[in-house]
Amino acid sequence: MSSYTYPGSGRSVRSRSRRGSRASGRPAGPSTRASTCVEDMNEYVVALSQSRGNGTEVGIAVHSLSTGHTVLTQVADTPFFQKTLQHLTLHPPCTVLVPENRNQAGENIPSGTQLIEEVEDSFELECVTLPREYWNREKGHDDILRLAVRNEVQTSTLMAAEEKYYALCAISALFKFLEVRQGLKYPKEALKIRYASSEGTMFIDTDTAKNLELVKNTLTNTTKDTLYGILNKCFTPMGSRLLRGNILQPSNIQHTIEGRLDAVQELLSSPEKLKSIRDGLKALGSTDLDTLILQASRKRQGSVSVVETEARISILLQLQKYIQGTKSIQEEMTLGKCRMLVEIQKEMSDPMLLEIERKIQECLTTDGITNSAKRRNLTTARLYAVKAEFNHLLDVARTTFKENLDDIEHTILTSMTERHSLHCTLEPVENKFRLALKPQDVEGRALPGECINVQRKKTKCVFSSVLLQHNARLEEAQQEILLLSGDIVMKLLASVLDHISGLYRCSDAIAKLDVLACFAESASDGDCVRPMFGETIAIKLSRHPILDKTLGRDDCVPNDIYAAQGHASFQLIQGPNMSGKSTFLRQVGLLTVQAMLGCYVPATYANFRLHDALLSRLSNDDSLDRNLSTFASEMATSAMILGLATPNSIILIDELGRGTAPLEGLGLSHAIAESLINRQSFVFFTTHFHDLATTLGSMRGVVRMHLRVQDNRVEDDNNAFSTTFQYKVEEGPAVIEHYGLKLAKLASLPADVLNRAKEAAMSLSELEAKGRDSTASHAMIKRRKLLLERREADNEELAQTLRHLQRESLDEFTKTFQAVA
Ligand SMILES: Nc1ncnc2c1ncn2[C@@H]1O[C@H](COP(=O)(O)OP(=O)(O)OP(=O)(O)O)[C@@H](O)[C@H]1O
């Protein structure tokens, strides 16, 4: 068991080696290493509040440090906390807060130790404990009231969180931590806080997200060659964020998905419109509107110093530019017919945005201090950022300033020319002025004594003058202007933020539009088809979405996929090593996610089901880095799958039972498969166990498939042969035997080793065949004996036994018949 130190509130709770901690403790949980991607930069502060005792109710509050977005939720979790981990994968944490508890001796101990272990192992961080009094339901409720932007989202958040005790506790601890420990004080009603329900989404456990490489390439630790990487053609950070969230938690509500598909179809039908919209989005640049809104909220209060005023003006001008940018996009959308595009257009033309634009336009000059061409004239820009005639007092101060400036210009410049023949110019710098001369005017020449702070540069010589320094009136007037401007800008920002909900709505709308336009763009450059949804999975000539891009369309072999409730829910897939089994499984998973995002898929026809969960046991999650044995990991993942699988789940299992003795592996694989068949989940199951095909083959719902391989056999004493992998999935059992040996030959294993391996394999096959015969005769003897014994038993029991034996014999007959055929 891991050793913890209990150093008191707010300090790390763990002082153990992460590796190996599980090996000595409870059974290993499924690998849950998070699938974060580089862009996320783990920027979320997360608070977790778990029900006491054996319950697994977990309240989660997450807060983005860059956008201020706060999401709370409460989940009834599995024993290994997959749902909590999935939520954290969506919001990669930099800090995780947990409540501290006291044991009988009055010492502080972290509560929910198992949850803490899972989180620490998955996200490679150490949780931070906070005193119990921070975790307060009422305070959580008040925080939402105090900090959330007042709009319909706040109302629905309060309603949804009303009965969620642990979620409210978590949010109260979160804000207490941010305010007290981090000194982050948010102004009232400035944050986007929402309650997220997992209802209406497909659950994807963290292992599956990782193994399908949905958002992170495990080899390169980037988004390259991931589903996110190939789909993400978004221009805005909000769009990319939304896309990533949707990939990790796709919708399973048909209305929502069809709405997106309608929008994509409409954009696809008008390439010019799509291009103009994407050009408009591109012009918005990489500015993160959510971050900008948060910065604006933070600047709502504070000093009116020059630096602060400058920052406020910069934010206001960026907001104005953003709103103007959205206008051009709206114009392109006026012809929108489908529901979602109409809604987006409505959100983007929110009257609040026009009001914000009007207010900024009325007050500020647009070519203010953000204009880089004028940066050298910063002081002047600062002084004239607020428009003339906007404020009478400001106009008066400016007139005084101008008079002083003219006066100085006249006195000093004239005096310099007349007395020293130096033709100076006046140059504003920071909050003061200085004089400047061209280098050739001062070359080899000493400057008069009244010139001080002389700096000779390549392009000019700058200096100050005693006269200039003593001009207090000029500085006074300048300060007056800056103070008045600061006050005006502060009020302007506050009045702009009265419309903060309009800004947040606009940000959401831009994100949605960006994602839809990116789906349309992806669909426009390839043979993709609009997916449909029904009771069966039927996909014609589908391509692996990532291989399609990386290998190229010509080299990516298309495959049909079919599964249906009842007669074909369990696909048992066999084939030699390297024949493409794992790739096929991943293809099924990726296409399912892609379709449920509302995205066209690479196929010629596609019908999907809407699933409640996508679960998997794929072969590259052996978690060596977590000191888990392959077998322990397999069993834990299988337990998780069996715990969550329903008839609406889609499950991908790749070569189960490899990590233990073959017979045990076969037995476990059979039992797990049988359980999934009985649940009627849609399962794609690859295996190297030939016997599994025999034991499962006759069960209702099982369809046997194989990956076609062309065996170019010229088998002689030298084992000369070659195998062509065709990556084509076909119905029926696999036909090539000892393909492992053939692949080993291709890998240039020494000939003597190969020959020995072949001999051993042949002998084992013979032994196995003999064993099967003797087992069969043994079973027959047992059956006869049983029949004799049953003669004495009551008639019904006898009838049942006979029926059972009849079924068994029939099955065996069918199998023999199929084998002979
Ligand atoms: N449909 C396809 N089109 C093109 N190439 C493919 C296709 N399917 C698989 N491949 C290629 O074949 C290689 C082997 O595929 P994969 O790993 O899926 O085989 P496998 O049967 O699972 O092998 P093993 O049993 O050894 O794990 C992959 O590297 C992949 O690039």
Can you put this structure into words, describing what you see?
With 821 residues, the protein is α/β, with parallel strands linked by helices. It has 5 domains: 38-200, MutS, connector domain (Nucleotidyltransferase, domain 5, 2-Layer Sandwich); 208-371 and 500-524, MutS, DNA mismatch repair protein, Chain A, domain 3 (Orthogonal Bundle); 392-496, MutS, DNA mismatch repair protein, Chain A, domain 3, CATH 1.10.1420.10; 532-749, Rossmann fold; 773-820. Helices cover 49% and strands 15% of the residues. It is built from 28 helices and 22 strands. Strands 1, 2, 3, 4, 5, 6 and 7 form a 7-stranded mixed sheet that branches. α8 crosses α20 and α12 crosses α19 (472-497). The longest helix has 40 residues, at 751-790. The two termini are 57 Å apart. Residues 1-39, 368-376, 621-627 and 773-778 have low confidence and may be disordered. The structure holds adenosine-5'-triphosphate. The site of adenosine-5'-triphosphate (ATP) has 15 residues, from α22. Keywords: ATP-binding, DNA-binding, Meiosis, Nucleotide-binding. This is DNA mismatch repair protein MSH3.
